[in-house]
Structure formats: C-alpha cells, structure tokens
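Hi F.,

I've been meaning to write this up properly since the lab meeting, where we talked about keeping a consistent format for the predictions we share between groups. The idea is simple: the sequence comes first, exactly as it goes in, then the structure tokens exactly as they come out, then a line or two of notes. No screenshots and no reformatting. I'm using this chain as the first example so we have something concrete to point to.
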Amino acid sequence: MVVTLIISLENEHLVYKIIVLITVIGFSFYNISDATAQVQSPQLSTFQETAQILIDKQISNNVTASITLQSTSNQEIRIPSELEQQIRENERIIAIVLTSENQCVLGVLDESCIMINVLRDPSDKGIIEIQDNTREIGDSLIDTINEVFDTNAEFHSVYLHQSAFTNQALETSGVISGRGTVSAVYTMPLEDTETMYSKISAMLIPQIIRDSGGFYETAKNLSSEPKSAVTFSMITRENSFLYQLKLSVSYSNAANIEIISPLEFLKTDSLHRSNYFANGFYPLNSILHVVILSPESTNVNEVKGNIIPTEVIDGEKIPTDLSMSGWVFDPESGNKIDGRYLFGQEFSVSKNELVFTLGSASIDQVLELDESIIVLIIVIASGAAAIFFLKGFKKKG
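Output, unedited:
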C-alpha cells in the first residue's frame, strides 16, 4: 500500500496517528472475508478538499463557512518554480498570502491584500529597523508575485502581529498571524469575490480538478454570497510548500443555535466529493469539519446520520472503519465541540443526513424551523483522521 501524505497545519500533531491508522486499517482490509474482498485499502493523496464552518459563540457570535482546496504538489496547485526559488532563498519568509478578506490587517479597508509574512529577526533593534528590513524582503518579491497573479499591488505598510489569541482558540499554527510574525502588506483595488475566485482558481487549479466538481464546485457557487472572501496562501515547509485556496463566507450574529445543519451555510442541499478521487479509496481527502466554541459547557444530543466506531490511540479517538460514512466527535461535550464527517466509500451526502443537535434540542424540531432561519455549523479543515464515537448519543435513522 502506497501512502502519499498531506496534513494541514492545524493537524500536524496527528500525522503519526494517521500513519498508524492507515497501516492498521490497511492490514484489516487484507484480512476481510471473500465477500468483502473488493474493498480497496485506504490511501492519502497530496490534494485535499475540506469544508469548514466555525460557529463562534464565545467571542464574535458569528459563523464562518469555508471551502479549502490544498496540496503540496505544484502540479495540483500550479505555482511557477521561479517564485518558489525566490522564496526559498530567504529563510525568514514563512508565507505569501493573497486575500480579499475585509481588513486583512488593521488600517486596510475595502482593498485586497498581498501579505509577505516573515519571522521577526531578533537582531532588529526597534520598530524602524523591523519595518525597514521587512519591507526590503517584501519589495524583493512583490514584482514577481504581481506578475504571477496578474495583480498590481503596491506597498501599504508593515504590520507586527502581537496576539495569538485566535490561533489558540482555533488551534492553528500561527503561521498566518501570531506573535513573532511580521507582514509586509501590499494593497490593490478590491475585486468582487466571484470574479476573483474564478480568476485565481483558473490560474492555479488544473482543469482536470476543476472539471471533477466536488468541493471546488461548492466553493465556486458560494463565491457569489455577499460576505464571501477568497484567500490563497503559500506556506513554506521544510522541504516543500503547502498551497491553500480558500473561499469563506461570514454570517454575522448567527451562532446562537442548537440545531446544527452544516450545509445550510454552504448554501447547498448536498455535498459531493471530487471525482478526482474516483480511481482509488481516499477516505481522508474529503472532510467536513464542524467546530463549535461555546461560553458554557454543551454537548451533542442527537445525530441524524451515522456515528463511526472508534478506538482510543494515545488519547485520540480514531475511526476503526474508514469504509463507513458518518461522524466522529472529539470532544463531544464541553466548551468546544469538534466533529468530522467522513464519506467512507460514498461520494455525496445530503443536507438532512448531516443534522445534529446540541443541549436539549431535538432533531424533531428541524421540521418546525422556518426556511428563513439560518442554522450554524463549523467545518474545519483538513486532512486528518480522528473521529469520535458518541457514547450514549441518540441516533435516529
């Protein structure tokens, strides 16, 4: 069994567990009966699609829904080798970010941004030296970046990231923001997200992937939403780059819900995997990840779809049957609910199959909801493999 591994930044601590999981489950596939011997052993691909939605009841009371396409292969997300080499030549550069997110940093409004993120040099003395040295690095790259992305971004400012609070809350690595990171910020006129996503995806994503539908198609449809934004990140790693194309939509004051229906915020009645994975068994390369941050302890009450059985490995709940579609929740109660939906051998899932409730809410109440009421969910990303068996949870067929 050949495994090609790609793990998002916020899931790197699961790399070892996933390799163990694939190995263990791979061997189990060789030992099944003749009746099920046609099932393929699981593999991991360099390309990954993740549906992400964050329900933040703790801080903003907003819901953020997003689709992320990512790869470590510049054949699947195409970046010129010349730009890669320029970035490699300076060890302080940790990420290049192009985004239409509103206020990419403080002081930028109604403009798109290109941020060249670098590690702060401890030898820099004072704010002026930090700004000058960071701008020098940014200026050495911006002409090439403008050429690659057909942009005309001009220098705006140098921004010192002071807080890692958001990174801690969402368990991200702090590469894009966080203490110790300095950004050379370049701005350009704001372009509508639908046009920008179409242009960037056509530049970066090969036609074979675009024609395969899947989460890419969901993101393309979602790009027309009023509060949508597109972000492309090129993140340096030890021997490679991680490329991420993300389409996100923010829903203000929408987090006060107990009936969770993830596809409501993705504006679709069904979520389809990419046909790019049709020639093999890639159960961990298409994931729906829902995260709920709550100021008070809560719990998953009822789950409409399947719950995948798990075992605990080094304190993590790991699914024992990747051929099965369904949810893993870990944790299933507390101030943070974290659920991942795996497709197993299926290539689509309907909106109704993904509904679950919190606290005392009942799935029967879904039928009573008016269509104008928006339900919240969080889907977070990426290529991981931990799912949780909900002991005592009520499962409805």
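Notes:
Confidence is low (pLDDT under 50) at residues 1-20, 23-37, 164-175, 367-397.
The helical segments are 15-30, 81-88, 126-149, 165-170, 193-204, 207-210, 215-222.

If this format works for you, I'll send the rest the same way.

G.
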